[in-house]
Design goal:
Elements (H helix, E strand, L loop, with lengths): L12 H15 L5 H19 L3 H20 L5 H12 L31 H4 L15 H11 L3 H24 L4 H11 L20 H6 L15 H18 L4 H10 L1 H10 L8 H4 L4 H18 L17 E5 L6 H7 L10 H7 L14 E5 H10 L4 H10 L37 H5 L10 E3 L6 H8 L3 H7 L14 E3 L6
Antiparallel strand pairs: 1-2, 3-4
Length: 509
């Protein structure tokens, strides 16, 4: 145990015993030295929490545990699944004192859109700025309970997909919310409701990306089309930074109400601000506020909170999220042969019970067109697990060749075109070589004297967004180097830009 995390001598025997029993459970696994040190830090933090006699000491212990969990997330082989239950125990509110029975009068029924919703059931109590008191007050809000029911019934597949997609995106997206002091669970809830974690999602209204920014709102927070023609609303890292800034701005304007901030995110900040001001600062669940939002927003707010709650408390509902091997560590792969994202999605295969790695590759490489071939030597973002599978199955061997064949197969290649017979092809006298050019041959003297037609001028191709030279060469059946030479492109990058016109010299198609 490192010196900075030793358990204070004044800890009670009960706290030490509880911490040691937990340590033994974790210790049953074979851990690296670094992982063992992190576990010891977490054990010490929980022991300090149990021995703490005031709120400040408990808060310090929770902060120490959160630090240990952050370090655990970066360390391979660290048993995060063992640290999480201890962290949740520390977040549980103390049991309330026994109430004095003052009679048998019935309690007032709970109105999901009125003042009867307890103050503790508002999202501010559930999702505070330090993510420390997201507690079991959800049970007092029937609207959120209804949202939980929906996520666990007909929307369970969407919840599962959202969780898997988020695990791959988490290293890119979570830091922005953590730096802003916003709960990560809130980020997951928004993403699950907006896009199911699909980076390339878009709506009919024009919102796109994992967090569905509209064009104007995106521009206000630094998102939009960059110099390469790529819309950065699709970039998960930039989108999460913009979302964190947007929520902090709304949070400051709407009396720190997360419900109203979510209502603004979905229904427009102008409407949310106007409703808030006109109501005198009442909360979202007040009927005078609630009824001024459209049905979509009334559904959106509790659904986001419900998804956030399930993200933190799955076991309470018998919910087991899929395992995502190596999803939390992003690495880069240098391609050892030309391949597209689609081709890699085939040769990588999939782990048991999963949908494969195509969505993960698309999410981690939002700038790449999935069908466009990427040149050998190019770099793509992946995970350590994907990198291992790539080297095993996508470089050489039967599966690599099969994937390459499949992505290059087109329906047009199966079609046979039979043209009309041309007179003379059969060697008859009418069109035989050397036959006189005259009326008897069916060819006029004028036609016979015409010079041979000049070869057609080289065709051109206008570069579109996502195009690369390898894909263009494959499309028109050209040699990449010849195509590059004809257009003055320099190796090895062969850089082209959207709108550029390429001469298709030497291409078969």
């Amino acid at each position: 145990m490192s010196a900075g995390w030793r358990v204070p001598l004044k800890l009670s025997a009960l706290a030490v015993i509880g911490a040691l029993s937990w340590s033994q459970t974790v210790g049953a696994q074979r851990l690296s030295r670094a992982a063992s040190a992190i576990v010891e830090q977490a054990v010490a933090a929980e022991a300090r929490f149990k021995a703490a006699e005031d709120a400040d000491a408990k808060a310090d212990a929770i902060a120490a545990m959160e630090k240990s969990m952050a370090e655990c997330g970066k360390q391979r082989g660290c048993p995060m699944e063992q640290l999480m239950p201890a962290y949740r125990r520390m977040l549980q509110p103390p049991p309330p004192p026994e109430a004095v029975d003052e009679g048998d009068e019935d309690e007032d029924p709970i109105d999901i859109a009125g003042d009867a919703v307890p103050q503790g059931a508002t999202a501010d109590a559930l999702l505070d700025d330090r993510n420390k008191r997201f507690v079991q007050m959800v049970q007092f809000n029937p609207a959120v309970q209804a949202g939980i029911r929906r996520w666990l019934t007909d929307m369970r597949p969407s919840l599962m997909d959202s969780y898997v997609n988020y695990q791959y995106l988490r290293p890119l997206m979570a830091p922005a919310f953590q730096r802003a002091g916003l709960p990560e669970a809130l980020l997951f809830g928004i993403m699950a409701k907006e896009s199911n974690g699909k980076v390339h999602a878009g709506s009919r209204a024009g919102a796109v990306g994992p967090l569905q920014f509209m064009p104007a709102t995106g521009r206000r927070f630094g998102l939009g089309v960059d110099g390469t023609g790529f819309d950065t609303r699709y970039d998960p890292q930039m989108a999460s930074q913009a979302a964190a800034s947007y929520l902090l701005e709304r949070y400051a304007q709407l009396n720190n109400s997360i419900e109203l901030s979510l209502a603004a995110y979905n229904g427009g900040e102008g409407r949310a601000s106007r409703v808030f001001q006109q109501s005198g600062g009442r909360n979202f669940w007040d009927v005078s506020v609630y009824d001024q939002f459209p049905a979509e927003t009334k559904d959106y707010v509790p659904m986001v909170i419900a998804a956030a709650w399930l993200y933190l408390h799955p076991s309470e509902y018998g919910l087991r999220f899929p395992r995502t091997w190596g999803a939390g560590r992003t690495v880069q792969i240098q391609l050892k042969r030309d391949a597209s994202i689609n081709e890699l999605g085939i040769c990588l295969g999939n782990a048991r019970g999963t949908d494969g790695y195509l969505r993960a590759l698309r999410n981690l490489n939002p700038r790449l067109t999935p069908s466009a071939p990427l040149p050998q030597g190019g770099m793509i973002n992946a995970t350590a697990t994907i990198a291992t599978l790539y080297n095993r199955y996508c470089v050489t061997g039967r599966r690599a060749e099969m994937a390459h064949q499949l992505v290059n197969s087109e329906v047009s290649h199966a079609l046979v075109r039979v043209g009309p017979l041309v007179a003379g092809d059969g060697g008859d006298a009418e069109g035989a070589p050397g036959a006189a050019a005259g009326p008897a041959s069916g060819q006029s003297p004028v036609a016979a004297s015409r010079p041979a037609p000049k070869p057609a001028a080289p065709r051109t191709h206008r570069v579109g967004s996502g195009d690369n030279l390898t894909a263009i060469a494959r499309r028109y059946q050209c040699d990449v180097k010849s195509l590059a030479t004809a257009n003055g492109l320099k190796a090895p990058r062969y850089s082209i830009r959207p709108g550029q016109v390429l001469k298709l010299e030497g291409c078969a198609r």
